[in-house]
Amino acid sequence: MKVSIEIDRSRCALLLVDLQEEQRLDPNYAVAGFEKIIANASELLAGARKAGLPIFHTAYRRDFDRSPQRPFEPLTAEGKPAFSDKTSPLTTICWEVQPKAGEQVIYKNDASAFSEAALGHALRQAKIEWLILAGVWSEACVAASVRDAIASGIRVLLVKDACGSGTETMHQTAILNIANRLYGGAVADTARALALIRGQRAKIWRPERPVPILFHYADAARHYDRL
Description:
This protein is an alpha/beta fold. Helices cover 32% and strands 20% of the residues. It is built from seven helices and eight strands. The strands form two sheets. It has a six-stranded parallel sheet with strand order 4-3-2-5-6-7, with helices on both faces. Strand 5, helix 4 and strand 6 form a beta-alpha-beta unit.
């Protein structure tokens, strides 16, 4: 359901998940509508910087030296990780959202941004209550990061149009599935998230109970638009 809220900006942070050149340039792992997603994420980043929020970036860099190959993990013919190999230049964070001095960058070996202890520690130290979250892929690293944020007692503001996946359908159904169990959190678009970052009230979607959205292939887009 839609409710009007404001958030305490002194206890709010921004997390951008895996906005890397791989998602733009690798034909196997390109994200649908990526240019719009990165533009929205750039707006969030600019707003967070202006508001003085703590800002965190993650980049997926698969590093077998730090975390050995997992059972069934796909490899290239050369025995390297099938995607996001640490030596690939495509793991670079996109220029539109390049971190600045003072913004923490977390290089991770697993889906969740919380798989590296540094993020959880920094958020606890800063007494963060709300984590504004955007990034890719919606059903993978975004969903895993949302889950672990909730488990850590942090409310997530999921910015739906600053997230993405391999297709629009994959993205929309992922956001709906996350929304169905977004306990303590909310879903917004970039415009409403920016209003909250500026200290204004905004009408956002919050789950009134577990699994409030029962959707089908035919009506998933309609439900997504209502978030």
